[in-house]
Amino acid sequence: MAVDLSGAVLIAGTTSDAGKSAVVAGICRWLHRRGVSVAPFKAQNMSNNSVVTPDGGEIGRAQAMQAHACGIAPGVDLNPVLLKPGSDRTSQVVVRGRADGQVSALSYRHRTAALAEVVADSLSRLRERYDVVVCEGAGSPAEINLRPTDLANMGFARRNDLPVLVVGDIDRGGVLAHLFGTLGVLEPADQALVAGFVINKFRGDVRLLEPGLEQLLTLTGRPTLGVLPFAEGLWLDAEDSLSAVADGVLGRPAPPRGAQWLRVSVIRLPRISNATDAEALACEPGVAVRYVTEPSRIADTDVVVLPGSKSTVSDLGWLRSSGMADAVAAHAAVGRPVLGICGGYQMLGRTITDPHGVEATPGTAVDGLGLLDLEIAFDRDKHLGTPTSTAWGQPVTGYEIHHGRVVRSGDPGLIGDEGSDRGNVLGTHWHGLAENDGFRRALLTRLAAEADRDGFRVADDTSFAAERTRQADLLADLVEQHMDTSSLEHVIRHGAPADLPVLTSGLAASAR
């Protein structure tokens, strides 16, 4: 029987990567399992990990993951504003799924008033369609220097009268100070919306933490609604593609089914994008996927993957200056496999030209690595798509996000006419190919053969979709077992209590 619940809540965090995305996904999945109609929402995201939605737009990958947890299809309203950094100072702005210019950190401030209306419209549509909307903040609400133009944290909460829960990552250390300090620097009207705290990634006996939680309650008047334990099995669909990487290794590799491992090295480009393409490979038993940044790590690998890039020309320059380009060429020269995806695919070709100045000075032309007989030119407009086809006898789906267009190819296609298949060097513009189980098995079998890993055996029972669902359920289990869900429901239904005390330090004191 479905639970009768309606309302909304904002999950903020003391820092980036505090666990906001995971907590939102867990709450969404917990509500979905109880029959609640629920949707995630992130007003403004900054990430180069994105997906193309069925309604034809581009949103942050974390919101697509959260939509999966809700049992709904992702759409552009879930993430109406997406910033995709192309350098340390500039980002592409994606508004309701479509690229809408470049901004600097300073110039972006002049667009936030108009974007706030876009955000409000998207949230309104979601609240009309779903009973509960679980919103995710961006960065930290304690970034008080950005408060006047805030789109996703306390400014967003104030405009929409949303209760706020603040998540802190205890694995970083100092979490009680982070939670107290985050509240303390907020002005009184913002503090009034903060209903409580959540602690994430706890290891050990929670009884040792309880005295600190009691003091935090005394100091702030806010309860801690949950202490979520550290969970080893959570690593798919991370908003920061490298946040779940330990010692360079992606995921938790299961032992091989055969006598040998298949070792895959993904080059960690400075502006890497959609690195989550490698996650489906890492789900397979006996496949060890690691990120690498220097040439010596390629010398002992079986497969090299060149992933997507938000700045293909710049990252190609880094490949050369770092020595990685020579290492990739040497790897391919002895017949070992190289796989390029999107921007990485473009780098493997002969030339890249930028007639419209999408990434560089208009008219820029650079040499690629020359491992594929391929010429690329950047279009002014970004190509977005969700194609379907067959490859190697397997049905495949994927998504495309790129400015680069193939203007000439002398190699056979990988998927029909799309992509390139030159024996041990392969490439495609399609993201998400490896999420197709049948194609992934055929791909790994071929890569292992090219790498002379005769003892590697691909598993025939790995389901990437099932693994993604398992991780969503694991997040929901953490919420159900380790949060005060009755209080969580009360906050969603009724908002923050009206009598919460104000901390009289910092901005709170100056604003009184």
Describe the structure in your own words.
- There is one protein chain.
- 29% of the residues lie in helices and 27% in strands.
- With 512 residues, it is of the alpha/beta class.
- The strands form eight sheets. The chain has a six-stranded parallel sheet, with helices on both faces. The protein has a six-stranded mixed sheet with strand order 17-15-18-20-28-27.
Structure characteristics:
single chain; 512 residues; alpha/beta; Rossmann fold; six-stranded parallel beta sheet; 15 helices; 29% helix; 27% strand
Task: Give the SSE layout.
Blueprint (H helix, E strand, L loop, with lengths): L6 E7 L6 H14 L4 E4 L2 E3 L3 E3 L5 E3 H10 L10 E5 L4 E6 L2 E7 L7 H18 L2 E5 L17 H7 L3 E6 L5 H10 L3 H4 L2 E9 L7 H11 L3 E6 L15 E2 L2 E2 L11 E6 L4 E2 L5 H4 L4 E6 L10 E4 L1 E2 L2 H10 L2 H10 L4 E4 L1 H5 L3 E4 L9 E4 L6 E12 L2 E4 L2 E4 L2 E10 L10 E3 L2 E4 L8 H14 L13 H19 L2 H10 L11 H5 L2
Protein name: Cobyric acid synthase
GO biological process, one term: cobalamin biosynthetic process
Function: Catalyzes amidations at positions B, D, E, and G on adenosylcobyrinic A,C-diamide. NH(2) groups are provided by glutamine, and one molecule of ATP is hydrogenolyzed for each amidation.
